[in-house]
């Protein structure tokens, strides 16, 4: 994608960005539109356009934004990345556009992510909304839809329910869903472990149950934290086949049986499983 530092905005994007500026509160906090109505002429801090005058990047981290994301954002047809971390944005997260590849909305005060948010964004490879106050389940179709999703960071929200089984067929490599805050947290079996491309997995501080599945096909795994859940059964011998694994935290579950003989340079935490060493 060719990015121009200063050009004339497409008329449609210019009109949409006026709405976005107003609803985000960026007209007040960042002065968007104050010097010029054109978001592509270089006067709108954090806005980047391509050579045809379409907005491609919105970057407004740590900007004192106090509004919410308007549904009109999805009219920015060439928007590829949006970063709005560390603000005080609230309300629901609406659909944001069909060409988005990177979304980062962490440390805000959102209420939920609309199911429609996911449906038109088939090429997203990074989604981050850490401590964003999001409440609700992960929609069942997410894994089927986000075929290119590589990084998912939704820790510190109030998500609950099962992880969709469709995640098992994705290319996802890094998953961070730890420390959900509600009384009901993420639970059920960990289908995510059937996704064979995962390198980094952190699901600690939830309510996952069932035994840990066979991990022999997860040959690239480097980091696993499943601590502070309600996992049962033995620690699978298949963990010994993960030659890249460097950190394994299974503490504070209800695991039992004998431990595998782990490689020497692996950090293993298993405390808080009072039946370890005893038959299951």
UniProtKB/TrEMBL annotation:
Principal place of residence: membrane
Compartment list: Membrane
Gene Ontology cellular component annotations, sorted alphabetically: membrane
Gene3D superfamilies from the UniProt entry: Ribonuclease Inhibitor
Lineage: Eukaryota, Viridiplantae, Streptophyta, Embryophyta, Tracheophyta
Residue intervals passing through the bilayer: none
Keyword line: Glycoprotein, Leucine-rich repeat, Membrane, Receptor, Repeat, Signal, Transmembrane, Transmembrane helix
Species assigned in the record: Oryza glumipatula
Superkingdom, natural source: Eukaryota
Official protein name in the record: Leucine-rich repeat-containing N-terminal plant-type domain-containing protein
InterPro entries on file: Auxin_Ser/Thr_Kinase, Leu-rich_rpt, LRR_dom_sf
Membrane-topology descriptor: Single-pass membrane protein
Keyword Glycoprotein: yes
């Amino acid at each position: 994608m060719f990015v121009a530092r200063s050009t004339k905005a497409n008329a449609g994007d210019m009109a949409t960005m006026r709405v976005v500026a107003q609803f985000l509160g960026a007209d007040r906090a960042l002065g968007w539109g104050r010097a010029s109505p054109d978001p592509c002429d270089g006067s709108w801090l954090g806005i980047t356009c391509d050579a045809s005058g379409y907005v491609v990047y919105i970057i407004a981290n740590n900007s004192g934004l106090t509004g919410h994301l308007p549904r009109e954002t999805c009219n920015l047809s060439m928007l590829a990345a949006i970063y709005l971390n560390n603000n005080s944005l609230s309300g629901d997260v609406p659909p944001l556009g069909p060409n988005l590849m990177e979304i980062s909305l962490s440390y805000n005060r959102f209420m939920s992510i609309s199911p429609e948010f996911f449906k038109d964004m088939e090429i997203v490879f990074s989604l981050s909304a850490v401590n964003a106050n999001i409440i609700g389940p992960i929609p069942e179709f997410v894994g089927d839809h986000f075929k290119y999703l590589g990084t998912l960071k939704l820790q510190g929200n109030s998500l609950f329910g099962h992880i969709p089984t469709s995640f098992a067929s994705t290319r996802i490599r890094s998953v961070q869903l730890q420390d959900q805050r509600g009384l009901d947290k993420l639970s059920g079996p960990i289908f995510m472990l059937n996704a064979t491309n995962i390198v980094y997995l952190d699901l600690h501080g939830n309510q996952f149950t069932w035994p840990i599945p066979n991990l022999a096909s997860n040959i690239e795994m480097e980091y696993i934290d499943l601590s502070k859940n309600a996992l049962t059964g033995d620690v699978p011998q298949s963990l010994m086949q993960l030659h890249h694994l460097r950190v394994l935290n299974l503490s504070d579950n209800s695991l039992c049986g004998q431990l595998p003989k782990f490689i020497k340079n692996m950090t293993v935490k298993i405390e808080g499983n009072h039946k370890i060493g005893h038959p299951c």
